[in-house]
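User: Please look over both lines:
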Amino acid sequence: MVWLVVNPGLRSQDKDRAELAKAVAAAKVSLEQGLSTSAHEGKPISAKFEIEDGKLQLSVYTAKGDKFRRSSSTTTQERPPRPNPSRR
């Protein structure tokens, strides 16, 4: 006999990932733009998109000397739609 145990939290994680992927695709700021924008605060060492309070947020972590800093930006506006070259 074989038992299969399914963690109900996995479905929730899949839904969260799908929501994050959709939000990142529509974000007005790219990860690369966030990294270059935060470079004035120090050397960017890490960055991530996450959903917090229902809004897409970009967090960039920087290092300057022996100090570390986190800067966050809520990216609520969408990018303009990209032209579709196949629709000509």
